[in-house]
Amino acid sequence: MKTLITGGTVVGPLGAVPTDVLVDGETIAALYAPGVASTGGVVADKVVDATGKYVVPGGVDVHTHMKLPFGGTFASDDFESGTRAAAWGGTTTIIDFAVQRTGEVVQDGLAAWHALADGNCAIDYGFHMIMGGVDDEALKAMDYLVEHEGITSFKLFMAYPGVFYSDDGQILRAMQKASDNGALIMMHAENGIAIDVLAAQAVARGDTDPVFHGITRPSALEGEATHRATVLAQVAGNTPLYFVHMSASEALAHVSAARGAGRNVFAETCPQYLYLTLEDQLGAPGFEGAKWVASPPLRPRDEPHRDDLWRGLRTDDLAVVSTDHCPFCFKDQKELGRGDFTKIPNGIGTVEHRMDLVYQGVATGRLSLERWVETCSTTPARMFGLYPKKGVIAPGSDADIVIYDPNATTTISAATHHMNLDHSAWEGFEIAGKVDTVFSRGTAVVAGGAFHGRAGHGQYLRRGLTQYLR
Ligand code: DUC
Ligand code: ZN
Ligand code: ZN
Description:
Distance between the termini: 40 Å
Radius of gyration: 21 Å
Number of helices: 14
Strand content: 15-25%
Number of strands: 23
CATH superfamily of the domain at 58-383: Metal-dependent hydrolases
CATH architecture of the domain at 58-383: Alpha-Beta Barrel
Bound molecules: dihydropyrimidine-2,4(1H,3H)-dione, zinc ion
Shape: globular
Largest sheet: 8 strands, parallel
Oligomer: single chain
């Protein structure tokens, strides 16, 4: 089956160029200057008219948590609902986090994650491994996963003592291992020991509303942990280090400094930290703010975090935008923390809206069109060993393609989204653009305002080592 996408403007990191795209089966077969394919006798089974629209590589969301066990419950999207919602939003690859909890065998955690995803995904998917218990066995497992399972990135937590937390010695050992086997260490950088003291003090004072989740996790403690992790990575042998969900100016400054010194330090941020604030969302009246409880927390409106993060995206100190998609319904899930913010399951659901929300930065002049594609698709693919299969519109690459209409609009609402979530953190947000058509490995999974994909179309991606080192 051959499909010719005509009349559109193909966007990549190097520019936006009017180009026709020929898809043959699951891959991109050829690119043509406008009109050349039709006059040159290229015969396609189907022609898709993309006139006036952008043709971009499918989004790669490298930070999702389908069914994550957290705070006595589970993230509300499973792989079926979560990947279908991702497809609706123009994301054609996710990398989810398989989980090893303290005391568990790494390979058992991985097998459990394969069982959750296998046969259920609408789009292609890979895994990182959360290391919740770094010991001799787990360190050996890191080698095994890199060599045999296509898992080349490992997340460590400086937060959540007693749950996922690693101490500095464990972090150093995992970094030394990664420096040997080429893996990328992904870091949740918040000083969880200090945060737990502040949170317990707040609860004891009777400060139990959701906003205290943010007040007890100050940005200085994200900055401190970020700096500590960069030092540990340097001592371990310039281990490639990638900070997840960066929210704070102080943290970004440490990343910039490390990068300025030539180190292999990278970072991502998420839409919630680019747009939402501690006062406007987390501080909403009553228990409403629980919808926006995530870690790190939303930051104070009058501090420079959001402007700094947008700047970081422009300068590449922030290389990637992911979602940290970790949805919990308000009813029965967020409500577990009524009267005690420490019991609110942490997470926000955004997997469906990342391409739109970052495109809104293009529409408002904060980011170039090229950086939109680079931060949402090309760099995540390169960072996590999937390029050029994913992340680029080029002959030989998977035909994961989004036709994006800059002249249409999107209004985000829980009434119309496709995530398994009873509210939206983005209710009422207006986007000056719209996902029009989405191809996953050559199949039009979203077209004409309808979903045509299926659970099980998505394939597991064995990834190579990061391709983004300096
Ligand atoms: N942060 C969240 O908000 N949820 C899941 C895990 C994390 O680090
Ligand atoms: Zn995290
Ligand atoms: Zn996360």
